[in-house]
Amino acid sequence: MSLKPFDIEVDAPGDELMEIARRELRETPETRAQAVEELRALLREAKDMHFSEEEAFLLIFLRPCHFYAESALKMMRRIAEFKKTNHPLLHALKPEEEKLAFVEHNVVNVLTNRDQKGRRVLLVNCGAAWDPKAVSSEQLFRVFFLIHLVAQLEPATQINGVVVVLDFDGLSLKQVKALSPSFSKRLITFIQDAMPLRLKEVHILKQPYIFNMVWALFKPFIREKLKSRIFFHGNDLSKFHQYISVDRLPADYGGNLPAIDYTGKDWYPCVASHLDHINKYQRCGFVEPSKE
Q1: What are the angstrom distances between the C-alpha of 89 and each of 41, 202, 274, 285?
Q2: pLDDT digits (tens, 9 = 90+) for 118-138
Q3: Greater confidence, 1 or 288?
Q4: 121 pairs with which residues across the strands?
Q5: What local confidence, expressed as pLDDT, does residue 111 receive?
Q6: How far is CA 172 from CA 126, 188, 206, 220, in A?
Q7: 232-241 contacts: CB < 8 A, separation 24 or more?
Q8: Model-level pTM?
């Protein structure tokens, strides 16, 4: 059955994708089976945490960790810690709670096509398109969190990774004030420690001079690995095109594809349709201590 533009790809990876996984992630049937069993054993020993032991679920953590089970367990522990620290913001989060942010405000979007390396491309409109009075920075994070939960389900995304494009066109003090130090720290901590996806590149576009105030907030929290993957382009889209092919970009970003005519409103039904996985992920984390 052919996929619709706003469906995600959950089919098992084909030969070409598995060759990338073998080359970049050490994934073979033997390595995968061994790592899954090892991670299951480690989880059973970790009495203070609960994560589903289904193979498809464990692959979400094993692939970005190159099938090193101990590294995957450490990631799971960081995720549990992040969820505990941000419990009021993320506890029992469901798509319905942020439906208005998806449907009525074009802040977060995802390209319907992948780039030339098979990566998903997330677009965040951080400039004039974002009204912090309508969508708070906390809501912005929650939308981002929900989208990342659905992206986890795609084997192609687990293997090829994701690219984030931050569009700061029309940035003003209104948005700068909303990007508080606490939000900056939360977002960067999430990306570096608690996001089980391969973040390959972050591209910052159309940023005005005032963006320096934003960067000053984020920079102290960014470690070298992430810093090496952040690229600043301003209005020089030709530089951006060195990373993402014009044949895979819409006209909005100097590409050869038609201009974007869809928003989070079109992606919302896809996110809402994967409530089972969202709930399963939300149940994972530290085990609550007994009240006896």
Answers
A1: 31, 24, 20, 15
A2: 999 999 999 999 999 999 999
A3: 288
A4: 163
A5: 97
A6: 10, 22, 12, 22
A7: 232/204, 232/207, 233/203, 233/204, 233/205, 234/205, 234/206, 234/207, 235/205, 235/206, 237/205, 240/203, 240/205
A8: 0.95
Q: What is the pLDDT of residue 290?
A: 58
Residue type for position 213: M
- Read off the amino acid at residue 277: H
* Residue 3 structure tokens: 């996929």
Secondary structure (H, E, C), the chain = CCCCCCCCCCCCCCHHHHHHHHHHHCCCHHHHHHHHHHHHHHHHHCCCEECCCCHHHHHHHHCCCCCCHHHHHHHHHHHHHHHHHCHHHHCCCCHHHHHHHHHHCCCEEECCCCCCCCCEEEEEECCCCCCCCCCCHHHHHHHHHHHHHHHCCCHHHHHHCEEEEEECCCCCHHHHHHCCHHHHHHHHHHHHHCCCCCEEEEEEECCCCCHHHHHHHHHHHCCHHHHCCEEEEECCHHHHCCCCCHHHCEHHHCCCECCCCCCHHHHHHHHHCCHHHHHHHHHCEECCCCCC
Taking only the tens place, the pLDDT of each residue in 230-289 is 999 999 999 999 999 999 999 999 999 999 999 999 999 999 999 999 999 999 999 986
Q: Is there a contact between 271 and 147 (Cβ–Cβ < 8 Å)?
A: yes
**Burial code of 80-108, b = ≥16 C-beta within 10 A, e = fewer?**
bbbbeebeeebeebebeebeebbeebbbb
* C-alpha count within 13 angstroms, C-beta hemisphere, residue 13: 23
